[in-house]
Design a protein that fits this description.
This protein is α/β, with parallel strands linked by helices. It folds into 2 domains: about 1-245 and about 450-475, Aldehyde Dehydrogenase, Chain A, domain 1, CATH 3.40.605; about 250-435, Aldehyde Dehydrogenase, Chain A, domain 2 (3-Layer(aba) Sandwich). It is built from 15 helices and 20 strands. Helix 6 links the parallel strand 8 and strand 9. The mean pLDDT is about 95. The chain binds adenosine-5'-diphosphate.
């Protein structure tokens, strides 16, 4: 833990083990913080706020830029740590380190563009000025699936805006968080400005975050259930809240699309991070006229993906995060199979060649999905591609929108009018049109409906950490 610029040594039994999900082995033990540690960190963040907010945007920008450079200098080291702790193949880990660093660069720049407004006043002797000021102490909770970029996407804009931060990373991936906070410290973030509380049990820390009056803003990325609970409690204390929650992305392939090209895209985005992404396609709707060609291509490509330890050359599918994740994926596949889905490839846990020591599930393609199946509604967070055929555009759009989630959606078509109709008609915060990677530090990321509140990245990302203050002057 990092509180007030000092790293806490592990004391006695107050620690927990971090497991490599590919091997089941313990990598390291880290300090186990609770409510008292969270409270102490909030206290120092509160004390550090006046001096930090008083620094110039140029000074904060320079520190973030230095942290960006340190992340790039240590890209390989960070990527190896991420693969060991989280499981994703090393190439994907390198991509994530770059993506994570991009947020620091982007917000180093945005720090200098926090503009206010002058507003014409109704009286001749009156002047209006609206300032943008940092909200204050930010409490941040991050998930394990993108254990570096989800941190920089919050801490970057918060620090750029002049806020101080206390962050609790996911219990599965504290080592990546520690590495990033070391970089922030080395880059010159002053003591108390960025604090880290690692914890095996998130609840006492979360309780303190939502109840402590010194926290002015909660930013959360994780499951919808936990996000709703925390947002509810934070609302009771009138804290600002941003949430990036679960998703159930539809992936629509229209009759005019090239089924092979679309299947390649589906494979890349579906099996990215072993399906453990909130933007992962969870229902693939394919026009009946090209359905079989799409399914054949996707299944033959998915079936060839090598599962294993992400540090091994050629591995394209890493492990799931833990035993519970394997059980959830297996239960959804078994439910679909029992209700008539066709398992085109995969459909089983992988145990051969030492994979039994980790949490591996085969890349799976399911055809003949219907709305009665659990997978049609529940987020899978695993390597399963569920496919349905459709006949009519409007029917496909209605099915795509038939979910309480609203994060990402994907469309494959070569018809510009159809693309625009779908872009406008899909009730999701992010729509990829022939594009399976509609995200970047410069682009607003976030969902509607049960997928969350607020946006991260882009110029909107820093606004989440700013308050508007109006000045009325009689002259
Ligand atoms: P996932 O299913 O992706 O693990 P969670 O919502 O459980 O999603 O976890 C996302 C983050 O939320 C993690 O940092 C986790 O520790 C934290 N978290 C989980 N439950 C709580 C809780 N009750 N209070 C505060 N934080 C929580």
């Amino acid at each position: 833990m990092l509180v007030n610029g000092a790293w806490t040594e592990i004391q006695g039994s107050k620690s927990f083990a971090v497991i490599n999900p590919a091997t089941g082995e313990v990598i390291e033990h880290v300090a186990d913080g609770g409510q008292a540690e969270a409270r102490a960190a909030i206290e120092v963040a509160h004390d550090a706020f006046p001096a930090w907010r008083a620094t110039t945007a140029y000074a904060r920008s320079a520190i973030l830029y230095k942290a960006y450079q340190l992340m790039l200098d240590r890209k390989e080291e960070l990527a190896q740590l991420m693969t060991t702790e989280q499981g994703k193949p090393i190439r994907a880990a390198r991509t994530e380190v770059q993506y994570g660093a991009d947020f620091l660069l982007w917000f180093a720049e945005e720090a200098k563009r926090v503009y206010g407004e002058t507003i014409p006043a109704p009286r001749g002797d009156q002047r209006f000025i609206a300032l943008q000021q940092p909200v204050g102490v930010v409490a941040a909770i991050t998930p394990w699936n993108y254990p570096i970029s989800m941190i920089t996407r919050k801490v970057g804009p918060a620090l750029a805006a002049g806020c101080t931060v206390v962050l609790k990373p996911a219990e599965a991936t504290p080592l990546c968080a520690i590495a990033i906070f070391k970089i922030l410290q080395e880059a010159g973030v002053p003591a108390g400005v960025a604090n880290l509380v690692t914890a095996a049990d998130p609840r006492p820390v979360g309780d303190e975050f939502v109840n402590n009056p010194k926290v002015r803003k909660l930013t959360f990325t994780g499951s919808t259930a936990v996000g709703k609970m925390l947002a509810g409690q934070a609302a009771g204390n009138m804290k600002r809240v941003s949430c990036e929650l679960g998703g159930h992305a539809p992936f629509l392939v229209f009759a005019d699309a090239d089924p092979v090209h679309a299947a390649k895209g589906a494979q890349l985005v579906k099996f990215l991070n072993t399906g453990q992404a909130c933007i992962s396609p969870n229902r693939i709707f394919v026009h009946r006229s090209i359905h079989d060609a799409f399914v054949d291509t996707l299944a033959s490509r998915a079936g060839k993906m090598l599962a294993g330890n992400g540090l091994t050359d050629g591995v394209a599918i890493g492990p799931l995060v833990n035993e519970a994740a394997v059980a959830k994926v297996a239960a959804q596949v078994d439910d679909a199979r029992a209700k008539g889905a066709e398992v085109v490839c995969g459909g089983e846990r992988l145990t051969a060649d030492g994979l039994d020591k980790g949490f591996f599930y085969a890349p799976t393609v399911l055809a003949n999905i219907d709305p009665e199946m659990t997978i049609y509604r529940e987020e899978t967070f695993g390597p399963v591609a569920p496919i349905m055929a459709f006949d009519d555009d409007q029917e496909a759009l209605a099915m795509a929108n038939d979910t309480h989630y609203g994060l990402a959606a994907y469309v494959y078509t070569r018809d510009i009018s159809r693309a625009m109709r779908m872009f406008e008609g899909l009730d999701f915060g992010i729509v990829g049109i022939n594009d399976i990677n509609p995200s970047a530090a410069a682009a607003p990321f976030g969902g509607i409906k049960d997928s969350g509140l607020g946006r991260e990245g882009s110029r909107k990302g820093i606004a989440e950490y700013l308050e508007t203050k109006l000045g009325g002057f009689s002259v």
